[in-house]
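Deliverable D4.2, example record:
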Amino acid sequence: MVRPRRERDDDVNHNNGRYKGVRMRKWGKWIAEVRQLNSGGRIWLGSYKTAEEAARAYDAAVFCVRGTSGKLNFPDNPPDIADASELTPAQIQEAAFRHSRRVTEEAEVAGNSYTECYFGGGSVGDTSGGAYYHSPGVWTF
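Output generated by the structure prediction step:
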């Protein structure tokens, strides 16, 4: 038996309405990661409060890894990253976080705005070996 093919919109991976490269943890945080070409390894992009932020982080990372041939979640709002193909995984993480916040910050009205994103290994609740990025531009290890 052959299942009928569903039509897809290029903007969103319609696998339960999720974005490409994004999934939700059991406790409600959205995470993003991208696969590296030829090595099969992954670049961890961090945890985010919303699926849209995580999807924008994925867009920036896939742009860095695959260039203009990468399939973006938001093709109408591509990342503006110079020399993207020459970035290290750590630089890709930072570029991804900055791009995820770019649209959100543009939409926010002036006021208190605090954002954080966790990059690191370890188990749940274990922040050793990782780093938090707090906007604007403050790292905590």
